[in-house]
Amino acid sequence: MIDGPHRANAAVRWFGSLPNRMEIARRVSPMTYVRSGLPPILTIHGDADMTVPYQQAVRLHEALAKVNVPNQLVTIPGGSHGNFTPEQRDRIYITIREFLAKNGLGPK
Prior knowledge:
The chain has four helices and two strands; from the N terminus they run ααβαβα. It has a two-stranded parallel sheet with strand order 1-2.
């Protein structure tokens, strides 16, 4: 997202002309840390997010599934980068509680 066909203005603004921008981008990318043995991961992503493309969430979900990490991708139709509607937030909070309970991580 810093260079090439998927270049994103936000990424360019974040990393600017830093001499080590590719290394920093690699270090902050969740994809760098995908490996088996991770705890369950819940990803909530709006499919209209203009800051972090929705496809990035899909790629993370697929990579986690490939190494058998329990994970769930929740797509918020029309959702952007936060600022969800009250209805979307209700769905998100219910999903979080269900995910935690399903994975034995909820309140005792």
